[in-house]
Amino acid sequence: MKTIKDSVHDYIEVEGVALDLLDTAPLQRLRHISQLGTVTLVYPSANHTRFEHSLGVYHLANRALGHLGIEGQQAERVRAAALLHDVGHGPYSHNVEDLIYRHTGKYHDEVHDLIGEGEVAGILSEHGLNPDRVADLVAGDGELGQLVSGELDVDRMDYLVRDAHHTGVPYGTIDHGRLVRELRFVDGDLVLDEGNVQTAESLLLARALMNPVVYSHHVARIAKGMLRRGTERLLAETDVTPNELRRMDDKDLLVALRSHEATAGYGRRLSYRDLFKRAVWAEMEAVPEDLLAADHDEVRAFEEEIATASGVDPELVILDVPEEPEMKETSSRVIVAGEVRRLEEQSTLVQALRAAQYDQWRLGVYAPEDVSDRVGDAAVRVLGLDVEDTLVSDVRTGVHATLDEFQ
Amino acid sequence: MKTIKDSVHDYIEVEGVALDLLDTAPLQRLRHISQLGTVTLVYPSANHTRFEHSLGVYHLANRALGHLGIEGQQAERVRAAALLHDVGHGPYSHNVEDLIYRHTGKYHDEVHDLIGEGEVAGILSEHGLNPDRVADLVAGDGELGQLVSGELDVDRMDYLVRDAHHTGVPYGTIDHGRLVRELRFVDGDLVLDEGNVQTAESLLLARALMNPVVYSHHVARIAKGMLRRGTERLLAETDVTPNELRRMDDKDLLVALRSHEATAGYGRRLSYRDLFKRAVWAEMEAVPEDLLAADHDEVRAFEEEIATASGVDPELVILDVPEEPEMKETSSRVIVAGEVRRLEEQSTLVQALRAAQYDQWRLGVYAPEDVSDRVGDAAVRVLGLDVEDTLVSDVRTGVHATLDEFQ
Amino acid sequence: MKTIKDSVHDYIEVEGVALDLLDTAPLQRLRHISQLGTVTLVYPSANHTRFEHSLGVYHLANRALGHLGIEGQQAERVRAAALLHDVGHGPYSHNVEDLIYRHTGKYHDEVHDLIGEGEVAGILSEHGLNPDRVADLVAGDGELGQLVSGELDVDRMDYLVRDAHHTGVPYGTIDHGRLVRELRFVDGDLVLDEGNVQTAESLLLARALMNPVVYSHHVARIAKGMLRRGTERLLAETDVTPNELRRMDDKDLLVALRSHEATAGYGRRLSYRDLFKRAVWAEMEAVPEDLLAADHDEVRAFEEEIATASGVDPELVILDVPEEPEMKETSSRVIVAGEVRRLEEQSTLVQALRAAQYDQWRLGVYAPEDVSDRVGDAAVRVLGLDVEDTLVSDVRTGVHATLDEFQ
Amino acid sequence: MKTIKDSVHDYIEVEGVALDLLDTAPLQRLRHISQLGTVTLVYPSANHTRFEHSLGVYHLANRALGHLGIEGQQAERVRAAALLHDVGHGPYSHNVEDLIYRHTGKYHDEVHDLIGEGEVAGILSEHGLNPDRVADLVAGDGELGQLVSGELDVDRMDYLVRDAHHTGVPYGTIDHGRLVRELRFVDGDLVLDEGNVQTAESLLLARALMNPVVYSHHVARIAKGMLRRGTERLLAETDVTPNELRRMDDKDLLVALRSHEATAGYGRRLSYRDLFKRAVWAEMEAVPEDLLAADHDEVRAFEEEIATASGVDPELVILDVPEEPEMKETSSRVIVAGEVRRLEEQSTLVQALRAAQYDQWRLGVYAPEDVSDRVGDAAVRVLGLDVEDTLVSDVRTGVHATLDEFQ
């Protein structure tokens, strides 16, 4: 057994299959992949990695299994999946995940190929575990898969607390001790025991509050847009292949961006926080419906059209249309007065949170500061935005220059 | 200047009028009045007092004044009011406040008489402050009164964080540093600056989450019911007067309950946590409308009727009908896109929180464990409760015997 | 099983004999005995009680037993002793312990009479535990007694962290997680495993740093002196008996002091922090050797002599001669290169800490502010203090009026 | 003014020259230089960077200046120096500092060239500050230089607390709030005010405890040895120049190690934590005196001799001879009874800490696990170590395989 000191959970005991997996390259690689990607450009202390998060998820899975009374191979399989759940992440985690998916067809939780061969597969087999079944758990399949990836999974219990600890934003401080204690399986569903409507709500609320302030902060989104743009060029104009990209870590990607002439500008800007600004920042009401459903190629076409209309290099315009909000956790289940209910049935807060997610949604157009006025005006026209619900002018006139601005 | 170490705010600097007020008996008395009263019977570490809370409120007021650029006598008056804002509390703070009000006509924020004479009045005058105007601020009157008592007051910013620190329940962990920085005065109203809808929401959510888990936990409510009952008897059957009661501290009251024969049973039960149990625990839908509006005498009459119907001593039946929920904070104001809006207009969460408060509301009937079945049955009949929405049977069959039960 | 939320250890699981003991009066009484007594007059947030501390000690004992692989009745006995280890404390814990000992012959860890009869004895017997053997563990007797009371006991692991949490002074923040993991039994001795010289040193250092700043802060010592004086008068001039005193809690004692005419002055002064000041504050070098060894009666005689010499009422002079420092922890044992060594042999720090304790030692003479000059001058003469090493004049001239002064 | 959220100090307000410096490349580059280098291989959560530390040092400098009453250009110069104090660091901070010094003659605090030209120089000049005088402060020169680099500098106040926060090791948790409040200038010396002997001691103790457990943990030292060895080869066998190396960040260096054939093995081993083991671990008594004084070339010669004697590739043997311990803080000054004294005169602890540093000192010889026995035996002979005081056999037989082993 090894005991590892963690800034969030204090001591984490690692043993069994997890101990053998710990020193494999796929897991150690996560030391070089930041948990929150470009969010560190807003919150400078947020430099934690997927490695320590993976240890935390393993730890909480282990405690949940104990409280649930699950033992033996079944438990060992969950522990392996918990520790390995993030090995499929590319550089900067979610920041370039869509791009990797477009080129390789793999999201980060599709790890059958990654753990189905090599040293990880070997270790799993030595411990009598089938790599495919572990990969299934990582994808959230099966009853126990709910613990690893689901509405009440230990993944979010770790990341909310860890992100709060490292950003300094207190909203993520959920009561994970209570959550792992109160999990139960009822008819194959993972639920929270009697008396925990609040506990379930607090999990949702934590994410709802962290979202605009941390995960979707506009500065992080701008940098993410620039990172994606740079990475696309890297694939397009250098000999880096999508599969190489998928297995890079943060260090590889940033150095690659800096090293190639075609991407050096992005590399420099991202390294030294010389970022584009918001040319447009629009609420959902301002956005024509078909734009909301635009695919990657359509977005690229719009970017070029805006660039032409404003007379700037297309490389200097980024259109950022987030997906429609979804809140997986609203379907989490709790026991109320002896029967299992979906949280959304039980909690009036939950419908409200859904609506609040829509309120917080923003379309962004980003460009270098010296051309952002021109780009903003052109974008409003090209995209057919409703000027009333577009905050572009406010941004320009500095109305937003509050605490929120830097962060 | 004195510098006082505080477990929540680290160092608190006290100077000027506050320094002179610090050593007065009305303020030092708050050392003996617990912040959360009977909540310590649920959360054993929650033994913090109104004294340290008052220092915290003074500290946050001081910082808010700095950020708002308010100086001179005006600021000094607010600092005095912040430090003194709780001197009107009777023993066990809010727990017996209604009872004291019925007998003396004073709530805890009515302090004109308490600070209008004696050493406090003297010190205020020495510093050129009018005691009456300070008392006005304590009552929330006037523009600057909003800082001391209002939707965005520093009182709640301190107590949420402090109660979280001492109970161990993380939900109250708001970002008070941000809140005090973002306060502005616009046309006489205290508002939060641009970009702080979330900040305002987080304040509401913190209280909404702390409420059922901490402030209105059923065990704390049962003990509070017993404390009120005991205190009523103390007034009725001993020579303790309402005005003496109002100026007692927790120690005085508990020892008084223990010392008088008529109340010794309550004194012992409260001292050693030998509490009544829930005989009925009913949602609002289960409760006839007129019962919701019952006054103190009507509640007493119901208690006696239930006692008679179940054949137990009336002293052993407590009917606890909380007031209808209200959420003062929903009318707090934020600047959005340059104009002041009420939070309830801007935030879909806020309406939901209102509704959630109603969901959490519970009527309780409490009695000693050995008679709680009989009392529960009788109460359902006497009060005309709708059995479907009454959780009495669940309580009895132990369905609630989860984590929540002890706490 | 009950799960109790604690602000230090998060969730504490209570089961078995501990669960039955929890609701007994001797244990619940500890809710009304503060952990640090008069220290709250220096650190206003330090209002934690012996009750929550007892739960914490039980929790750490439980974890230590798990790591040590001790199970069954033996473990259950240690858990009972851990939970009960402080039931022998009188009001204000250590503050009046000497006084109670002089009158009853009992220190707080002598609990054979307290748990040998009544409900506690009954519960222990029901669980097959011999009350006398549990009381032996509380006194630190036997191999397992070292866990409850010894150089490496879980008692100090809890109180250091808890006192740091509540005072806000960070020095007590030891790594208790590591300490309980690294305990081993070797030949009947409780020791720390290989690689933990530092861990053992940190425990000593924590206490050495907390001592002058928290436990022996001069303001706490002054108030303690006043509390003892008041309590002595209570025994001398009222019908309160020593055995009644021993079973009082803080509330009882403070109200008793306030209620009796002979002690009302002390009651008021202690309630409202109207304290004596230091008239003398002398290093050990300044103190004649026989004074260091003076017993209670001799100290009383000196007080009267000083009072006479300065022309003040003897009630207004308190002479405070602390015992010579001792550091039990220096004999704690660690494994180094495979063999058990005493920490003091292994660690150069330890001898230094001993010496440092002597450096920090101070004799104090306390009196009301308006007579403290006169009393100080008289005390220097009467006690034969070496003026060079006496800080009396510095105190008077306000040289010490720094951060330290209030606290 | 910008307000930046920090996980240690909560909100940091940046204005004036600091605000303009914030967005320069030399400062932003620190985002890519980890604070603790290879220590993250022991404590996975320790991924904080020199950037956030620099903000923290700026913040504490700012507060110290406020408490000291220093204003105007003088203060602005200190603020600039505090923010810039680490721009001279090469990749992995102190880990390859000696190597860079050997090749460039620059330590990290020699920044005259770095801030004397380019955008930083320009910004300083715009604010009326002389870059050379700012660089002097960074080097600790002049009265105010003591605040930036000296026995009581704000640098160590930040890093102790920050390293504790991120590693999870509590020992660094000093009371920085008190330290910055109690600083005074007396006759040009920065000292702590009356009543702070303990405060000064706590600063030393914190570092003394953090040192073996964090900063000089053997695993971090092994990885550091490998990093230096790899980096030397990078300079020797590729076209990377010393000046390029000095300006690299962590990402550049690790990717460079991985990319060049001559260093790819080190790159891989460091990336995936496939580290050498201790072949020898010897106390100072075991080491011949001339070896303690060996320079870089002599150490290289020993390594080759050990390699030859054990029949392994010289690349696989690392000899790690730390410098003799020094404790700068022991000469920090405190006011005692009105006069300035050096802490080492006043505190018996301080001499002990010096000695303790010698106790903790270890010489290490590292090699891959499969040859570490052979290498260890050869090293004992070649270096003439006293076998009695060499822990080599213990390490091999696993006596140290405790908690300490992984960490």
TrEMBL record, chains A, B, C, D:
SUPFAM superfamilies cross-referenced by the UniProt entry: HD-domain/PDEase-like
One MF annotation (Gene Ontology) recorded for this entry: dGTPase activity
Source taxon at top rank: Archaea
Domain called HD: residue spans: 50-160
GO biological process, alphabetically ordered: dGTP catabolic process
Record's protein name: HD domain-containing protein
Source organism per UniProt: Halapricum salinum
